[in-house]
Design the sequence.
């Protein structure tokens, strides 16, 4: 298929080019390519956005506990509810999240949660792309650790069955997993050629806890665990020395600005990370701490909060790159770019919207003012999953009905 | 007309009630009211949001100059472009902004700009409600001051011709208007029983400038000018003493969180203002510094940035009140509430959206996760201006086309 007559976001610029797709890949970008075509006249085509940190099925807890300190939020609301989760809940919660992501232009997400086989089912069914980790909480208990590894390897096998489900190991955090366990995970990742997804330095309390126990900052404590296969979510509280470690080890970061504001965690030093050439990508975190999966919101908020210090920080083009190309690199997948050899994960934006006009600078308009309603069509892996704002792979109304029922039941179980 | 079977936001809660409308006013709220009806089953009805500070026709400069320091932005881009503005530009720029506002649930805005007779035309034609100030820039030049007052009074007369156009005096700021001029405006406001809209304490530089010249902080310098008829936009940099002055004088504030972040102005001390019972409302500012008029974005960002200090700051319900009821109070109009005697300015939200489910807490969902596409119908002054997302009073495509043409011409004039 040839996508003709559209504007495309290509190597940091908006240009008029046709895109040739064969199967699930982009095979050519050029002018006036002939063939069976989709007419993208009046549309702007971006690579689908990449959400590099979320807990998808937490959609079920959206709005359940807001405006609370992190500890109270976790201990009195989130953990008790999560302890009663069942596989079916996670399946429907994942579907609800996928509907929200597709409608707001996300084509791939990186998820850490439980019952991930159910999330894999939702990914396969919906047509979206997902990178799935079983969240391992070992708590220095070797037996628990073994069970977490067993479950991780089970999910790994399930993910290998479909081209759109990728697997990462997901040790939850250095305060919920022992160093020994983390090193075991590192060995397994090397053995199976997989990557690792972990939370580090989200809150000041976490940093203080590690300092108290080990007399070191978290990245110093983790130094022999960290390498280019590790993606760290949050990374809010970092010393210069820790930034140096992240750089030397080629660690990747998922920045979660909305969640970090909402839970008073702080503002990650993204301009400093970028200056040090550390790969920064963008994540929404779960909907219990955002409460949205619309990553275009996070894109704007990321741009804004780093401007608080300097208005030249994170210009619109840099921000868009963080949410696309850098997302692909963070997940080690050929996504987030319109380039030959990349997966055909694309979003089609109708430019006839008040929020996108006038067109002095389309990239600015996308980052700072676009209403997500302008995203009309979404393609993943060469196939449309949404056309004219209707999701064609899923029954949206049924999913909303079912999740409402499950969510009510969950918090009253 | 009776609006039946809907949920409504009423006195801080979401309840099921019918609303009776007569002409342009809400006359009754109750259960099972009989009569000719609009079926709001499955919908949530909010008072239309109130944007208490913008420069509407700056839509023409959206994306024209981003990611720059305030001075460079103003002096090299905004002021040169504005100096070439014509009345027709402002008319079309206002229409574009009104389209964007209606589609994102704003039913009344407070605007300070030039050629305000043209914005008045756009308000009348579109069906929205607007409060209009001619922005007076006197620069201590009495002749210039006289011309600004003459133009203000001309706009006042024009606004009096229509029920949906209200007038405020608009002395731009204490650094562009002398104290003498401000006091003259105060007398005129008293004489004509009108209100005043002014920028104060937006940036540190502005505060330093006033301190240097008058050895006082801005609110101290303005103490005899300030009273309950004054609405201050920004109020970012305030001492405790200045907060006390605002409280004593019953001054109203328009908080502009997005613009203040984007231009590195800072974060206004909103929790402290609220603790002191000072009326805080919400504004987007112009689209050259936001760059959106979707006030639901500002609503979420306001909630988030004040949580950076404390997650309990500005809960969802408080935020929604700021953007509705407090907006009405800031503009001295019977809007922003669903109550008997208030104008029928209402927005109708379709609850069947992934972004609004599950319904643990609908107010949280509105503030933190709602996609504005869920706003299906918008009513102003008892008349629908949008139905099923189609604006029925204006030709959206024609406005987009025309503003594109004008905007290109404006920056190349």
Sequence:
């Amino acid at each position: 298929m040839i996508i003709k007559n559209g504007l495309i976001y290509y190597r940091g610029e908006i240009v008029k080019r046709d895109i040739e797709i064969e199967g699930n890949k982009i095979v050519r970008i050029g002018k006036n390519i002939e063939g069976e075509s989709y007419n993208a006249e009046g549309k702007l085509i971006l690579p689908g956005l990449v959400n590099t940190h979320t807990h998808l099925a937490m959609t079920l807890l959206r709005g359940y506990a807001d405006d609370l300190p992190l500890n109270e939020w976790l201990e009195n609301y989130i953990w008790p509810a999560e302890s009663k989760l069942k596989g079916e809940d996670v399946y429907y919660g994942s579907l609800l999240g996928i509907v929200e992501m597709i409608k707001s232009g996300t084509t791939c997400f990186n998820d850490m949660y439980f019952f991930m086989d159910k999330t894999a089912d939702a990914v396969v069914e919906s047509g979206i792309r997902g990178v799935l980790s079983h969240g391992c909480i070992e708590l220095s208990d070797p037996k628990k650790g073994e069970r977490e590894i067993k479950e991780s390897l089970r999910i790994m096998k399930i993910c290998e069955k479909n081209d759109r489900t990728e697997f990462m190991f997901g040790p939850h955090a250095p305060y919920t997993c022992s160093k020994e366990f983390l090193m075991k995970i590192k060995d397994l990742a090397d053995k199976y050629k997989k990557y690792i997804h972990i939370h580090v330095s989200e809150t000041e309390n976490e940093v203080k806890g590690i300092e108290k126990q080990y007399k070191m900052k978290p990245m110093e404590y983790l130094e022999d665990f960290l390498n280019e296969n590790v993606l760290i979510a949050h990374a809010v509280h970092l010393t210069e020395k820790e930034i140096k470690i992240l750089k030397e080890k080629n660690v990747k970061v998922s920045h979660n600005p909305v969640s970090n504001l909402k839970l008073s965690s702080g503002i990650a030093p993204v301009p400093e990370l970028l200056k040090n050439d550390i790969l920064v990508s963008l994540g929404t975190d779960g909907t219990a701490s955002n409460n949205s999966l619309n990553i275009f919101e996070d894109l704007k908020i990321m741009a804004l909060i780093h401007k608080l210090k300097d208005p030249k920080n994170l210009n619109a083009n840099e921000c868009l790159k963080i949410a696309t190309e850098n997302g692909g690199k963070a997940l080690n997948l050929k996504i987030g770019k319109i380039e030959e050899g990349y997966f055909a994960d694309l979003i089609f934006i109708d430019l006839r919207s008040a929020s996108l006009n006038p067109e002095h600078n389309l990239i600015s308009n996308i980052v700072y003012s676009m209403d997500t309603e302008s995203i009309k069509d979404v393609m993943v892996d060469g196939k449309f999953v949404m056309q004219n704002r209707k999701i064609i792979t899923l029954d949206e109304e049924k999913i909303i009905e079912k999740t409402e029922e499950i969510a009510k039941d969950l918090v009253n179980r």
